[in-house]
Amino acid sequence: MSKRVLEVENLTVDIPVGSGMLHAVQGISFHVDQGETLCIVGESGCGKSLTSLAVMDLLPKKAIRTADKLALEGEDMLGAGERRMSDIRGNTMGMIFQEPMTSLNPAYTIGNQMEEALKRHRKVSTREARDRAIYLLEKVGITAAESRLTQYPHQLSGGLRQRVMIAMTLMCGPNLIIADEPTTALDVTIQAQILLLLAELQREFNMGLILITHDLGVVARIADRVAVMYAGQVVEEGTADQVFNRPTHPYTQGLLDCIPIPGKTERNKPLGSIPGIVPSLVGPFHSCHFAERCTYAMDACTQGDIDMRDAEETGHQYRCLLDPDACRANAVRKGVA
Amino acid sequence: MTDTVISAKDVTRTFMISAGAFRGKKPLHAVNGVSLDVKRGEVLALVGESGCGKTTLAKMLLGLLPTTAGTIEFGGTPVANIERLKLASLVQPIFQDPYSSLNPRKSIGSIITLPLKVQKDPDPTSWRRRAEEMMELVGLPPRLYENFPNQLSGGQRQRVAIARALINRPEVVICDEPTSALDVSVQSQILNLLQDLRHELNLTYIVISHNLAVVEHIATRVAVMYLGRIVEEKDTENLFDAPEHPYTKALLESVLTPDPSLGVPDTHLGAAYPNPVNPPSGCTFHPRCASVMGHCSDLKPATIQRPGGFVECHLYDDNEGRSRAAS
Question: Looking at A223-237, B135-149, B152-166, B306-320, which range is the least confident one?
Fold first, then answer.
């Protein structure tokens, strides 16, 4: 059995706002093993980015984080102080953000920034750090790596910058990488290349990877396991095959029905849609979060919290009152299973 | 009935950009000899990577940017000769980001009726009624008339942008990435709305998008742009079922369909999008092309008619092309 890299149990993030308490993340549990890719997918405002920030302890100051368990390779991160956390970040746990232009410092050369990443955490000479930077730049497919070290971020294209970001994240050989929308700002052709690179590097270095995205296409191609988030909760979790081929929760089914799929969706025919908007997460909220927009909503849906339950297969869970058979029939009717 | 609404002939747009403090300026051919006919009632999609000239071309079609060379005609009259106001009543844009394309200090009603005001519509008493009818048509509750953009969701804002574009009943609507700033569930609503309105109001769309799945779904014809040229233009069926240009093929391969049994595709394109100030010789795509041949770097490919459209690639040269290459 492969080693568990990250374990999160019952994570919540609350943010005090003018009109009360915003419950942005409401009791999320997940884990990532070595060499495994977990994708967290959801629409804007569902809490997926806050989840990743909470794991890294990079939440905005006024946000309140609680959890039953938050462990990186068995080490408890809940009690870790800021000093210990900054030892962990960029060392055992790497991060890749959406916009490489804003996450690289424009005033320093690529070489400078990459060497600093290693020197901050390890006792190494500049020479060694430089060699590792060149090695990793070549690994991420950058030609003339040595000459790139003296370049500044603005001299590189978006795709190259994201490659530099990935190389920089790998400097200390992390066991876990959290990538928040790493390809959203890139062209489709470059997106495919960066994803391929991430998947290859992850296999080679046997890292855990958490990929946060809204793009179902990306998720299907790269994920081992998928967690679908809606309004601060995980509403369905399972392997990529389970979630995409046998979607169970009405929201997952709705999402898959919304996107045009080449070769499957008929051209010029109307797409499926999810009516309504995401509910406000301010104040206490005890009902199914999706009930307002759900075609199958019943009275019971709004009379208390809904728990995760097992679908037909092991490892496949969803948060809905409908039993698996009924969900399955809905999926078939929608044409998404 | 398929008459041509917009016709562009050999349109070129060159920007002079600074090459360095003391080096003077260099020309950048953002759009380089593009010819395009848009027929009434069709949905023409422009696709390509960022920097390929899609938006520059769209701006010229809107009359927002003069052409450096070539002509654009609207219904047979050169755009340069059409009065600005008149053109605005014929062609309207919908932009990508509904958060920045709506004035935050104007109410929804005044945003939607602004085009009527600008056009000095003779019947101001009917404006409110017409705006409310338009709001209903695009799926906005008319009670939002007095509200402000910050009170609306992203999808609702994009509906406001659509209502504003349509209030003067234009013939052509140019949609620049109409759904890429929106969430998946909202994207499908907007795409369905655009389709419905097209049939209802007999509109012609020019859609600019990098999302090929969306393009395949709504377009009737697709033009693939690369470095300021249209390298392949075909009707949707022919383009998606039998892509011919190696660049089109690579683009289609990089579309990530949500199918977990497939891995991440390897497009072999290489990361380097060429510098448009200093484009490669011959066929500008040759440094990234998987089927590159000897003469691709010397000779510009000609436009070759193919089933359903045309392609610009030496792979489809007839004998004449090959003998040209040999000489």
Answer: B306-320
Nearest to A199 among B153, B189, B264 (CB): B264
DSSP β-bridge partners for residue A33: A4
CB pair distance less than 8 Å for A157 and B214:
no
Q: What is the pLDDT of residue B114?
A: 94
| pLDDT for B167 beyond 90 | yes
ipTM: 0.83
User: Chain centroid to CA A67: how far?
Assistant: 18
CA of B267 to nearest chain A CA: how many angstroms apart? 7
Between helix A158-169 and helix A110-121 the angle, nearest 10°, is: 20
- Give A216's contacts in chain B (Cβ within 8 Å): 184, 258
Conformational region of residue A40, where left means phi above 0, alpha means psi within -120 to 50, and beta covers everything else: beta
- The reply to whether residue A268 touches residue B213, judged by beta carbons under 8 angstroms, is no
State which residue of chain B sits closest to A243, comparing Cα positions.
B260
Ranges of beta strands (E only) in chain A are: 4-17, 20-33, 37-41, 64-66, 69-72, 75-76, 93-96, 176-180, 208-213, 225-230, 233-239, 309-310, 317-318
Reported as a pLDDT band with limits 50, 70 and 90, residue B97 is: confident
Nearest chain B residue to A191 by CA distance is B254
**Per residue in B30-73, pLDDT tens?**
999 999 999 999 999 999 888 888 889 998 988 888 999 999 99
Distance from CA of A81 to the nearest CA of B (A): 37
pLDDT digits (tens, 9 = 90+) for A171-221: 999 999 999 988 887 888 888 888 998 999 999 999 999 999 999 999 999
- Estimate the share of chain A in helix, then strand, then coil, as percent rounded to the nearest 5: 35, 25, 40
Distance CA B104, CA B58 (A): 25
> Does an H or E element contain B217, and which?
helix B212-218
Q: What type of residue is A288?
A: C
